[in-house]
Design goal:
single chain; alpha/beta; nine-stranded mixed sheet
Length: 357
């Protein structure tokens, strides 16, 4: 019996040790798994905490900042507007946010019946009474102001943001840069081959929207070339989308447009631009993203060069308001005020532009 009891005790002891080993092993396993999970989740927790803290900062800022909700006298109605295609991201990101916060205001973008949409066509539609206000990527011309006076009102341009005018070419074109004067001479038909500006022996094919529909300009109102006609070699396109498509097919082509619109395109290359050959500034944030990397990381606007004025071709963003003491003036004024709030300016920057200094 003693031997039997000893065997039982020995077996029970071994079973106990085995069970304790299992328990300890499970505890250790759970600790290892727990530690691994904590390590894996730590970045997410940190980023979540960082996001929460940045949201708190935004909330604390918004308590003292002007917002869409703080703008008085926003009309309760539906309005039509039109103009610059460069404003597309503002219409998508900012205008939709305005209408969400101020549901009493409804905005509808209207394309021109003839010609391509752009700053010029939008101002023309405003003059003709077809829209209530216009979005423009260029200042008003003397001719447009004169037309308004003939019709019994004036036009006001209220700046709400800033952009640049970028010059883009086919990625295969080996041209390091251009000066503003060289760009203008290209579109006047005075420079016709890339070898005249340090490039290959290849004919230049300038692309542009028609001046009467243009979104941006390369002959500023203070330029002595203002009003000059483009050369006969300029090929006109309906839109920036069409121009980008042509650029990818034609090695010698060149196009100018809103930097915010063309810089993220993977099938074109933006050129540094300068007032002189010794003061060249890239419209994009350095370093330039190659076409191979472009799908993962897009080129962004060089906001610092736009802010400090070192980039030579700036395109100011204007709300064009009809000063007629009517509903058009009321909505144009309210829309400009919405964009000029702290919330509106922050949203314009999120849309890829530069806020008003």
């Amino acid at each position: 019996m003693d031997n039997t009891n000893q065997r039982k005790a020995l077996i029970n002891g071994e079973i106990g040790l085995f069970i304790r080993g299992l328990i300890i092993g499970k505890v250790l396993t759970l600790m290892v798994i727990g530690g691994l999970l904590w390590w894996l989740l730590k970045p997410n927790l940190l980023s979540r905490n960082s996001l929460n803290s940045s949201n708190q900062n935004l909330n604390s800022l918004s308590s003292n900042a002007s917002t869409f909700q703080t703008v008085p006298d926003v009309p309760n109605a539906s309005f039509n507007y039109g103009g610059s295609t460069a404003w597309a991201s503002i219409r998508q990101l900012v205008d939709s946010q305005i209408q969400s916060d101020r549901p009493e205001l409804q905005l509808r973008y209207v394309n021109p019946v003839s010609g391509s949409p752009g700053s010029s066509s939008g101002i023309r539609m405003l003059l003709d009474g077809k829209i209530d206000f216009a979005q423009s990527s260029r200042p008003l011309t003397d001719e447009e102001q004169a037309m308004a006076k003939e019709r019994g009102f004036t036009l006001e341009q209220r700046q709400v943001g800033m952009d640049g005018v970028a010059v883009v070419v086919n990625p295969s074109l080996n041209v390091p840069s251009l000066t503003v004067d060289q760009l203008q001479q290209i579109y006047l038909g005075k420079i016709t081959n890339w070898n005249q500006v340090g490039g290959p022996n290849l004919a230049i094919t300038p692309l542009s929207q028609r001046p009467e529909d243009a979104d941006t300009v390369i002959f500023p109102s203070n330029s002595n070339l203002k009003g000059q006609a483009f050369g006969s070699n300029v090929q006109y396109v309906y839109s920036t989308t069409e121009a980008v498509r042509q650029l990818s097919k034609t090695p010698g082509s060149v196009y100018y447009a809103s930097a915010r619109s063309v810089l993220p395109q993977c099938s074109v290359k933006a050129l540094p631009l300068g007032s002189t050959s010794g003061k060249l500034i890239a419209p994009y944030r350095e370093p330039l993203v190659s076409p191979e990397q472009c799908l993962r990381q897009r080129n962004q606007l060089n906001t610092q060069a736009i802010k400090d004025g070192s980039y030579p071709l700036i395109a100011n963003l204007f709300v064009i308001i009809k000063q007629n003491k009517g509903r058009e003036q009321q909505i144009g004024d309210a829309y400009a005020k919405l964009l000029l709030t702290d919330e509106g300016q922050r949203a314009i920057e999120q849309a890829g532009f530069v806020a008003v200094p």
